[in-house]
């Protein structure tokens, strides 16, 4: 046997990959960003809510007798900021926010989307807040007595008055001079903030024209009807549908879903509350009395909405 021929050991060297900025190298779990933490909060975090929370509604889960969490890819920190803003500036009942976290979780892609060879992530935001007792108006209306109807109407009217009394309506957009959150401008080239109602109207007109160029007449009417009245810019919930108002023991216990809130013309609250159709004239009467019905603005914006938000 040739003494120059021997066995050779080949050591495999694991290839090095770039560090994933979304993954904690120590725990190999997605990195968590803390957006807000109420002093004294010692409740669960994002990694603890997968242990079988009780489903309440879309994206909302009850995780203890006093705590619930709203989370998902569509949830944003801005919703919690709006709730904290309302807590600090009014007596309107909103769920008390305890903590807001976000993390970048691996995106689940459908196989038809194709594979790019790159791992993709999406941001998941978690809002931990007090569990709210009661049922929505939509669920409980048929069990109401006359006293409850009167309470809800009077309380809603007071809460709208408080919203409109918050100082700061110097632009149209979301808090901290952010863009307009309303879905009507979701595909607009510019979503604000708008420094005046006139600029906002131009933005609506431009977005409508680019989406539906056949109706020149509607654009002209939009200009004329909105310019006919000068509107105050006020803080607006922007989705006062009866599925977003909780009632308990004959009173409003909470107003929820502040995701699209911000500074809008004063007619916008009524228009947005009516955008999801309902067949309850009695509830519509409460809205009329609580918010006030802006007739011409409602008609023209509803027409625009049917084109920009067809669902």
UniProtKB/TrEMBL annotation:
Domain Aminoglycoside phosphotransferase intervals: 86-276
Bias-annotated ranges (Polar residues): 1-10
UniProt-listed InterPro entries: AGP_Transferase (IPR051678), Aminoglycoside_PTrfase (IPR002575), Kinase-like_dom_sf (IPR011009)
Region (Disordered): 1-24
Entry superkingdom: Eukaryota
Protein name as annotated: Aminoglycoside phosphotransferase domain-containing protein
Organism: Endocarpon pusillum
